[in-house]
Design brief:
single chain, two-stranded antiparallel ribbon, about 350 residues, Rossmann fold, alpha/beta, 2 domains, 5-stranded parallel beta sheet, 11 helices
């Protein structure tokens, strides 16, 4: 007797991705979860926008990062606020990971992310997009939607639910413009299973339904566009509060691992999955800290073993990420010293 309904993902409904192509992820914090799992397996994955939730804000951020050469719109989104007696500077188009104590710092952070994102797109990156909500906040001066209100007064914004048509039209234009500049790429679209309970559960359900219809239309309209059912995997397949974090809103680590496993099985070849497992094993070993202090000989042997295993991975997968800490096996005669903080502790 079956006591759950497993979400089966037909292989034909998703693209065959390659770990030898980088991935850019944008959207809600669910994108961060998957990006983290990719990086833990040494797959080059980058989320340049931080946590962004509604489709129009995600699109606007991508335009700034990948298409616009004029920085005026980004500069115009910068605001200075006082928080707990401190002066902080934010961009309303991005989350606080872009923030700084100065306008120059925010602009510098943006440029670093923009340059890295464009470099990866030029190398042939695929795109993974996660929509979190249909509800957007617009500045009351008639400007487009913001990515983050940064606790500014609600009177400054107009809140409304986006229409399916405007979501589809904006993303159709954006993907076309991106392909004109960067060529063909796969775009995998997901809907975050994270519930926006502050809006109330009925509004959250309506918001997610609007997103699901919009994504279905986009997948039918765009070439090389696919839907990955992250939402259904948590809410229909796992469907139990034990798979949520303590806040009963975000997925637990076990749920993220389950969804990540489904993604690998659906989008990667057997060979790529095997390589990710090897790379993840080396990365986990490199970041592990023993409770019992090893002897000098044990430490040397351990470093040698990690360096050897990483060298084997890199021989077969030359463009994988470095081990945690930016170590490579030819850095010096102690090639992984900074993996465990040896070098950082001396700096």
């Amino acid at each position: 007797m079956e006591f759950r309904t497993e979400c089966i993902i037909p292989a034909a409904t998703l693209p065959q991705l390659s770990i030898r192509r980088p991935v850019i992820l944008v959207g809600s914090c669910f994108s961060d979860n998957i990006a983290r799992k990719m990086r833990e397996s040494l797959w080059r994955a980058f989320n340049p926008g931080g946590a962004l939730y509604n489709p129009l804000s995600v699109a606007a951020a991508l335009r700034m990062l990948l298409l616009d050469d004029d920085e005026s719109r980004f500069v115009g989104s910068i605001v200075e606020v006082e928080e707990a007696g401190r002066r902080l500077v934010h961009s309303m188009m991005f989350d606080s990971s872009m923030s700084s104590r100065s306008r120059e710092g925010v602009v510098r952070n943006f440029r670093l992310r923009r340059d890295e994102a464009r470099r990866l797109m030029e190398e042939g990156a695929d795109l993974i997009v996660t929509f979190g909500t249909s509800i957007a906040y617009f500045e009351d001066n008639g400007a487009g939607p913001v990515g983050n209100c940064h606790k500014l007064p609600s009177s400054r914004f107009v809140r409304r639910m986006l229409e399916i048509g405007e979501i589809c039209d904006e993303w159709t234009r954006l993907v076309g413009e991106l392909r004109d500049v960067y060529g063909e790429f796969n775009i995998v679209i997901t809907i975050s299973p994270i519930r926006h309970v502050r809006d109330g559960l009925p509004t959250n359900s309506l918001s997610k339904a609007m997103l699901r219809v919009a994504v279905d239309r986009l997948v039918g309209r765009l070439a090389s566009a696919y839907y990955f059912p992250a939402f259904e995997l948590l809410t229909d397949d796992l469907r139990d509060y034990r798979f949520y974090a303590a806040d009963m809103v975000h997925p637990s680590d076990v749920a993220v691992e389950y969804i990540w496993d489904k993604f690998r099985n659906a989008c990667l070849s057997d060979a790529d999955r095997a390589m990710l497992r090897r790379a993840e094993g080396v990365a986990r070993l490199a970041s592990h800290r023993s409770i019992i202090e090893p002897t000098p000989e044990e430490a040397r042997q351990r470093r040698s073993d990690i360096a050897r295993r990483f060298a084997e991975v890199r021989r077969e997968w030359p463009d994988c990420l470095d081990l945690p800490g930016g170590v490579d096996d030819a850095a010096d005669d102690d090639p992984i010293a900074d993996v465990r903080g040896d070098k950082a502790g001396r700096s």
